Amino acid sequence: MRVGVGFDIHPFGEGRRLVLAGVEFAGEPGLLGHSDADVVTHAVIDALLGAAGLGDIGRHFPDSDERWRDASSLEMLGSVRQMLEADNYQPVNVDVSLAAERPRLGSRVEEMRERLASTLGIDPRFVSIKATTAEGLGAVGRAEGIAAWAVALIDRVREPEMP
Ligand SMILES: [Zn+2]
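^ inputs. structure came back:
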């Protein structure tokens, strides 16, 4: 088994949708970024790439590539799953911590877990998403953006036992 860690942060900006773990929060200020700026999914991508020793999100999905402009980050996560599979690895579990003054995730957490889990091909029980505020401290505390940390465990795809 191998473990990886990921971190990401995006600032809020005008005229953007807020997408976290593939779930849209209508009416909330969105985050600036080349893709859909899904800070949660980006942290998960970096954790998985780190676990597999495959570099980072900037290497595989560069800002200079028009293909990823306003792209769904879940689509990128799907590509990462394929990269892992090509190396005979599969995700085991993912744990995310989010620091944000807004939005309140509340009832949307289950939906977020399901989006990530289905993209990764694992049960939602193996995807955890936790949110906290920064208690008014620093850029996140001033509600200038959202930060996310993720840890991911991956394991070799096991061949089915011969009967
Ligand atoms: Zn990002």
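The helical segments are 39-52, 57-60, 73-86, 109-120, 138-141. Residues 8, 10, 33, 39, 42 surround zinc ion (CB under 6 Å).
thumbs up if we can close this ticket
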